[in-house]
Fold:
Amino acid sequence: MNKPKVLMLGWEYPPIVNGGLGIACYGLSQALAGKTDLSFIVPKSTASPKNMHLIGLNEKQHAAHEAANEPIAYNKLIKMHQLDVELDPYQQLPKKEEKNKGGIFSKKKKSKAPAHKTSTPPPSNTPFTFDIQDLYGNDLLKNTSVYTELVIAETKDMDFDVIHCHDWMTIPAGIELKKRTGKPLVVQIHSLEYDRSGPDSNGLIFQIEKWGMEEADYVVPVSNYTGRIAFSRYGVNPKKLFTIRNGMEDIHPYKKEKPFKEPLVVFVGRMTQQKAPLQFIEIAQRVLKKKPNTRFVMAGTGNLLPETVESGAHYKTGDKIHFTGQLNRQQLFDLMAMADVYCMPSMSEPFGLTALEAVQFKVPCVISAQSGMYELLKGALFADHWNTGAFAEHIISLLSNQKLRTKCVSQATKDIEESTWEHAADRAMALYDKILH
Amino acid sequence: MPSVCLYFQVHQPLRIRNFSFFDLGKQPDYFNNELNEEILNKVSDNCYLPANKLLLNLIASHKGKFKCSFSLSGLVIEQLAKHRPDVIASFKALADTKCVEFLGETYYHSLAAFYNREEFDRQIKLHKKALRKYFGIAPKVFRNTELLYQDAITETVHRNGYEGIWIEGSENNLGKANPNRIYRSHPHENLALIPRNFILSDEIAFRFHQQKSTLKADQFTKKILQLTSPHNTINLGLDYETFGEHFHQEEGILSFLSQWINNSIASKKIDFLTPSETIDRFFTVKKLIVPHITSWADSEKNISAWVQNDMQKECIEKLYSLRDIIFKLKNRSLQEIWSALQCSDHFYYMSTKQHSDGEVHNYFSPFDSPHSAYIAYINVLTDLELTIDKMRIYHSA
Structure:
């Protein structure tokens, strides 16, 4: 059998990673690279992986605009305007000269003009530039439409059998390509607007996701949990669902001595509503009430970070709950190597890659029952995401009961044995086979 | 004759590093030494040296008719002595003219007055000692950190032999009283209160250079002369860094200063006095009763610039809760670290105020957000606590 020619459309790719999406795309594409003829288009990349054709649109030289001059068929949802602007994704915006300030918020630095100085306003009539550097910048929607145009241009002469796109940002491009080429479309769902915004979500992004799952030949959730949401919240035909669980990076776990003697409970994730950081503060307060000699680390940034920090301070627990900002891989591993309990109270978690990392580091986990982990990890303790009391009790049990710890860790280690990217790639190959034959 | 009483505030904090969770227990330096030295050098060259030289010349050319005062925090004296002895020497030269008075304050530019009376007293004495050591003078007038004031602090100030204290000339201190007079404090009637005329002070400090207009020396002289009656003293208090750092020399701030002083003296309608002389000439019998904390900062002019949100409150309470154990351990370097952490600037950076007050906080902060400032500070306190624990074990063993 010939290798299937797969065109993947993604948004993040290492080293430019914000969350699980980039890691998952990397793991899956690496495992598929030998088995398929794989092209992967992302807005920006600096990597050059083996055996696959990774196209970072930032690096390409091409006359994007001319090629994409035909109007795009966003007939269903978005009224797309032909951008009447000079589109130059490759032009780097000049770096603003800024006082080098310390802190964990440096990503969203404002210009620091002294109060009495008049700051120079940005020049008007600047042609629009796709500052692709910031994938999740101010105008994500515009970025995705620019991405769509560029993908169309980029794939004009490309030969492929299947379009496989990842999450909503690439759905318009995937649909457009399917319309133009008639090739089957696979939409993989790493997370949904429902996860990020809760049950009331019904905005443009929700609509794009719904549209994408309707247009798709197959919908690939990363867990049955997410598959159920696709079915119950988005009305996806269950026959189109084909779960492919994430694998995990093979890491070499180690232990690291803590700079203090108290046990350490860690939270890792974006500080957004979905990950429930404020909930974690409440859980921590409950644990501290019973076990005052406990420490907590919250790693990650996000729009809820200021509020989360302030609520820790409100309870006067700032010297017990430590904030690290966003961590790099090494720092994350160091943290896991020190952790005594990993806690993930997410409101809705399609998969929960970080929990797998915790398990690899032999850290017992307390996880939201509203997560993909619920069906995978028998060796973890679960609580409904709203039940802070139950989370706290689980944490206290794990901190005080050595037998329970050992039991959880050894069960969880067994549970993740099959969580490899190789396994995920086999599932994907089975799906391509189903589609193409 | 009406008069002008000038004081310049000179202070540089020991800013802390962006201390992270991963630094805990590694015994790194808490303070951002490079940044502190860099700023000290910049401000010395842009402001302290050129402005001191200018004032020294003015004193010489007016043969004693120009007088002013300075308030140097202990922290800035300490840093200058270490890195810029040339600046110390130039302040000493000013002190030697006898036309310049130096004010007493808290050594660490702290909020100790409101958190620990004993600590407040200790820092007043430490500061006095530093003034004697470096400039050979004994202060007579006190200026608490950022003009923070309340009746309750007069006891300690009075006991340390001061005859007057600067306050903000704002309504929350004065009520309807005229800011251009000298008042008595409550309950220590012999302690004089010198209100800072903040409208005229801010005219220079905040509004010297606005959009396209620059304040002219003769305009300013005129404004002051309009206010003067024989019973009035115009008390101006400014950050010294206004002259060359907040506004650069190229914007004409130093020539403004010298022209204004020259104009005023030439007018013969007004003279310059030191704070002690001002108290002598203008002391009235009216008492000001100030039960709440006041200051010169932000539009609220109270303690809210430093202690308002939960982050500030947690840090400052935690810091002072460590005092007893720190002194019990009798470890000098630990004491000094703890003391420098009292510097009000650390709490100022954590302010989450918005709008124009927020912009000023942000301008001075070395951190990218109040939350980063808090995280670094609370991590430092945590590390300090871990160190204390280790020493306790060592001591009890």
